[in-house]
Request: fold
Amino acid sequence: MKDSDNKKKLFCCYFVKYGNIRESAIKAGFPPETAMLDGIECLRSAYCQKFISKLFSSTTCNINGIMSGLERLAFGNSNDAVALAFSDDCQSQDFISNLDLFNVSEIKKVKGGGVEIKIFDRLKALEKMFEFVSACNSSSVADNFINALTNNNDNDSDSYYNDKEDLQ
Reply:
């Protein structure tokens, strides 16, 4: 498989995860200077459209998108925020646009000539992840319980016994 095909596949995976064209292209290995155009070009290709559609249909997109964002807040890297804080005052647009500032909640200049950068609370993100997973799990448990009570799964009437046998 060619390197460009690998980049396109990676772009598709990152695009499904992040939903951001430029960020997905950079993470896939496209140069930051052309990442947006490369990402758009990928999205226009029939191969990528089919692959992205397949990825979307094989995952629960809303759950993945929410969990992805929470994971980035909880476990994300803040090196770029530190680099920005300790950099010169006048940075180029290219320097700033290549930074991953997803974890940054606030940036402000202080009167003394410095920069104050606030990062999202990782513990709160972990708590929200736990709450979200618990809600999703209890929702699916509740759905299964309701289906069992109403016999909405006529085709899978023996699925309980099959699952029980699989566990032994």
